[in-house]
Specification:
mainly alpha
Length: 142
């Protein structure tokens, strides 16, 4: 059967210079390479976006939960909390003693108080002696 010039099938022949065929094959190769490059770049951007989104979610969770203590605490924080608790108990104990009139004092303060007590006692004895002398002088009429 003779083939019509407008019909295309598996038996259709055409003639083309090799130079054109090489140009077409080269253009297709460059197009495929460029498409692969674009696809690779899109994959890289998508991966980076997923990683950034994951980091952002973790950061948000950390930012919210860390101050609440839901993620634990640093050892220094734990030590400070223990010291604050200890000082709070000491303060409470001192407040109770002050309310009862049992104010604690330190050793230098105690020594100072003893010194003043002795001086006051000595001055009181001397005052009594002076009073006695004045009384005896009045009694004698002098």
């Amino acid at each position: 059967m003779p083939q019509d010039a407008t019909e295309l099938n598996d038996g259709t022949r055409f003639a083309m210079p090799v130079r054109n065929l090489i140009t077409i094959v080269s253009a297709v190769a460059v197009g495929v390479g460029a498409g692969c490059g674009v696809q690779e770049r899109l994959n890289l951007i998508e991966t980076n976006q997923i990683l950034v989104k994951s980091d952002l979610e973790k950061n948000t969770e950390f930012r919210i939960k860390w101050p609440r203590g839901e993620l634990g605490s640093l050892p220094a924080d734990s030590e400070q909390f223990m010291l604050i608790e200890h000082l709070s108990k000491e303060f409470e104990m001192l407040s109770t003693e002050l309310e009862r009139g049992q104010a604690p004092f330190d050793r230098p303060q105690a020594l100072t108080l003893q010194f003043y007590e002795k001086r006051i006692a000595a001055l009181e004895r001397k005052l009594e002696d002076v009073k006695d002398i004045i009384s005896s002088m009045k009694a004698n009429g002098k």
